């Protein structure tokens, strides 16, 4: 992975992804929102002003040379539902609820928001096609990443072995203590592998490893090429919003992915 800065916007890219796929995990730097959302907040339901959130998004898209009107996003609801994006919806809100999105249309920029949950990017260089996933603990045990891989197989004939996958910054196992309800669902979803995913540290409650769990979900779906950022949102508050570390009073960082080509410039 590499941190880059463009027009004051600092973002992360994955070295395993070639240059013809446009992608970024945006840090919280380079926007205009004040505390507690400072500064590049994309969350529209966290108390920040809509006009600032929109301007932040415009800045971020322009930094990546993507037309803001090319956006496709959804209401993220911790499901394993996947939407196929066939055209941008731009400024017109969609009422779709999902936690995976895929497209093979270069005009579409897939966009999602995060603050501790796991961002996962997918790229099939052969079709070509892209996907993006939002997976907190619930989306992880529901295997949203596998559902998105399977949606790319069904829609585009993608072979999981051809896919490049990247797991972005999320709350790390050092900070992610979980209660009995989560432990039970992790054990139910991952069986004997759950011993590796639930680590006992100081204190009575185990810590859940979202990075390793989503890597396992992808591997079990047949994905072989997986880059993991290994960055903890709670450990790095200068770069990332952390819902848990900032006790709910915070913003949302963004992630986007799009197929490149002539249509990518504005
Ligand atoms: Zn941490």
CATH evolutionary superfamily: CNF1/YfiH-like putative cysteine hydrolases
Contiguous runs where pLDDT drops below 50 for at least 5 residues: 262-266
Q: Rounded to an integer, what's the Rg over CA atoms?
A: 17 Å
Order of helices and strands: EEEHEEEEEEHHEHHEEHEE
Overall 3D form: globular
* Biggest sheet strand line-up: 1-2-3-14-7-4
Number of strands: 14
**CATH architectural group:** 4-Layer Sandwich
Give the biggest beta sheet.
Answer: 6 strands, mixed
**Residue share in helix:** 10-25%
Question: What's the number of helices?
Answer: 6
Residue share in β-strands: 15-25%
Task: Estimate nothing, just give the exact number of structural domains.
Answer: 1
How far apart are the termini? Answer: 26 Å
Describe the fold and architecture.
The protein is an alpha+beta fold. It has one domain: CNF1/YfiH-like putative cysteine hydrolases (4-Layer Sandwich), CATH 3.60.140. The protein has 6 helices and 14 strands. Strands 1-2-3-14-7-4 form a 6-stranded mixed β-sheet. The chain has a 6-stranded mixed β-sheet with strand order 5-6-9-8-10-13. Strands 11-12 form a two-stranded antiparallel ribbon. Strand 2 (9-13) and strand 3 (21-26) form a beta hairpin. The two termini are 26 Å apart. Residues 172, 174-175, 232, 234-235 line the site of zinc ion.
